[in-house]
Amino acid sequence: MQKLIFRTKQQLGKAAAKAAAEKIENAIKTKGSANIILATGASQFEILAELVNAEGIDWSNVTMFHLDEYIGLSPDHPASFRKYIKERFVSKIGSLKAVHFVNGSAADPQAECDRLNQIIADHPIDLALVGIGENGHLAFNDPPADFDTDQPYIIVNLDQRCRKQQLGEGWFKSLEDVPTQAISMGIRQIIKSSCIIASVPDRRKARAVKDALEGPVTNACPASILQNHPNCTIFLDRDSASLLSKQSSRGADQ
User: Fold this and answer.
1) CA–CA distance, 174 with 195 (Å, rounded to integer)
2) Which tens digits make up the pLDDT trace of 192-222?
3) I need a labelling partner for 3 at 20 to 30 A (CA). Which of 22, 153, 234, 238 fits?
4) Which domains can be identified in the chain, with CATH numbers?
5) Which residues, at least 6 apart from 227, have a Cβ–Cβ distance to it below 8 Å?
6) Using CA atoms, how far apart are residues 154 and 141, in angstroms rounded to an integer?
């Protein structure tokens, strides 16, 4: 079941971060710790900027995983998701209980998946922060995504539209520079999260949002799987929600 929240682009990050902070605090109060998944990319700039300033969270009781990483990309590359998370989150909030990065530079990517799969098996996820790609992907699960695998992390091929999105957002100088493979958290692992908060700004995401929220649940639009999650809140701005035919007034802009 989805809950749609409509905000201006300026308000979206703050609202999503507030909701995320409440979920993290509740998990710590309830069981003494929280396990979270963080996403990267342009859609997450504002939410992470707000989340690192959230008051009342004891980050020393929080274990963090992240969704995906390019295969073969140096951790110092501007597009590295490890670099992104370190600079925008980890370096700003002090000590976490644990941080589990995806090492896309590993000599054996499958061995890296196996390593992470063993770790996350012991860490039920309380909160996943995600976005939706222009091609409807969830993490780097491009269409047609694998809805069947139970492996938490998998090796995926990146399609042309996904790679063009990364180029268009300014992470790479040319399409040829964008890697063709990544290690990604699988669809079923993401859906296991107790709570999912999706932040999706910008008009370029409008078609993917409509397909994900109003179309059939299909691996041709991987994010459509969010329709089946019992505790998923999706934050949209006017542009990303512009093609929706059933816009809820709940939490809408005034």
Assistant:
1) 36
2) 999 999 999 999 999 999 999 999 999 999 9
3) 153
4) 2-156+182-236 (3.40.50.1360)
5) 2, 212, 213, 217
6) 9
